[in-house]
Amino acid sequence: MDCRTLELRLLSADQIKNVNNFSTMDVYAVVSVSGGADKHKFITPIHKNCGTHPRWNHSPFTFTLDDAALNQNRLTLKIKLISDRILKETKIGKAVIPVSQLLENSGKDNIPYVTYTVLRPKEKPQGYVTFVYKFGEKFWAPLPVQPKAQKEVLEQPRSLMSMPHPQAEYEYSSLLHLSYGYPLQPQAEYEYSSIVQQNYGYPIQ
């Protein structure tokens, strides 16, 4: 299949919600792309005592994208902002951007510098994130192999045989050994296919 890379460096967030009651926030971000085979999640360094204006200085995050999924608008970039706390981490908000929109706005000779709205858990906008990104040239990679069917054991009780098989989490180019809790049950190796999701972001006007 045809692929291309997306390199992204998150620069900052501003005017985000202060979710700490008695202390200054320490903020980091989790960056991922949903809807394709690449399930990597990248985490920025924690900006200590930054409050509502975190800044980051990190190496670019690199995602490998299925070009067909990209052109069909199935890929979504997600940037989740989190307040790092001793007892419990708290979600601040997230930016959700169609990757196809980034491709449309990208140029060959420059690295786009963009700002998108941060949405609170109830979809209320508050704050924004700024990042730079760059798409690579197309290249070819082999298609992921479809998972093989698992045979049922006839000796299993009917009530257990009727139960749905547990679903595996998906990750690009990786193998996971699954078993269903029966000592004599043979294991099968699975390779992963993609999960399609779609959300939409709200760029700053």
UniProtKB/TrEMBL annotation:
InterPro entries, sorted: C2_dom, C2_domain_sf, C2_SRC2/BAP
Protein name according to UniProt: Putative C2 domain-containing protein
Biological processes per GO annotation: defense response
Organism phylogeny: Eukaryota, Viridiplantae, Streptophyta, Embryophyta, Tracheophyta
C2 domain boundaries: 1-113
